[in-house]
Design goal:
- The chain contains five helices and seven strands; from the N terminus they run αββββββααβαα.
- 20% of the residues lie in helices and 19% in strands.
- The chain has a seven-stranded mixed sheet.
- With 214 residues, the protein is of the alpha/beta class.
């Protein structure tokens, strides 16, 4: 099931009138509809599904999506807190994409059901963000759009390293053109352009008499 299938209150139903676009989504999504969404990587490998969404009550932002991986019928499964900004919302297949190799995810910092860590602990958060290549000091906004190609999968590195360049380029694509993904996608697109190394030439003002050429 996708988030559209779990939509109990018509959040994603087309608007009445001339517009055929859905309601708030995908810029604003119902948290309950996202729980249970499948997660894949850029190689189309199944990484599990989302079991919970963790809210930071001090900032009002989503901090982590808790991903379930492994096990059978809930037996032997392991839980992983994934930084919200490490995910990409695939709006065509209505699922999430995580830029991590499946074999590497098995060694990710995780925990068992019933033994949740203190997610407010700074050292724990640093470990999580280091593994997924995200920066806890930056906006924790996921990219979104129709694409699933992540430009490779994370194989290590620190926040801002080259291992995240594929995700940055994807964010750029999600927020360009006609604004695919809504205003939030445009914001993510700006971030993607920066991470991809795109620069905008400066605009030189009108030269006044006597100004040097430096």
């Amino acid at each position: 099931m996708s988030y559209a299938d779990r939509d109990k209150y018509g959040i994603y139903q087309p608007r009445s009138g001339a517009s055929s676009s859905p309601g708030p989504g995908p810029s604003l999504m119902g948290a309950d509809t996202l729980i249970g969404d499948s997660v894949v990587n850029g190689n189309e490998e199944d990484l599990g599904d989302i079991k919970e969404i963790m809210l930071d009550m001090h900032t009002g932002q989503v901090a982590y999506a808790v991903l379930s991986f492994g096990g059978f019928l809930g037996i032997g499964e392991k839980l992983f807190a994934v930084p919200w900004g490490a995910l990409h919302l695939d709006t065509v297949n209505e699922r999430f994409v995580l830029n991590v190799d499946k074999a590497r995810l098995k060694n990710a910092p995780g925990f068992d059901p019933g033994t949740w860590p203190d997610m407010s602990d700074v050292n724990w958060a640093k470990q999580i963000h280091t593994f997924y290549g995200t920066d806890p000091q930056q906006s924790n906004i996921p990219s979104m759009g129709p694409s699933v190609a992540m430009g490779g999968v994370v194989s290590g590195g620190s926040p801002g390293s080259a291992s995240r360049s594929g995700a940055g380029n994807l964010q750029s694509g999600a927020g360009t053109g006609s604004g695919t993904g809504g205003d939030l996608g445009n914001i993510a697109g700006g971030a993607g352009n920066l991470s991809g190394g795109t620069t905008m030439p400066g605009t030189r003002g009108k030269k006044n008499p006597g100004d040097s050429d430096i």
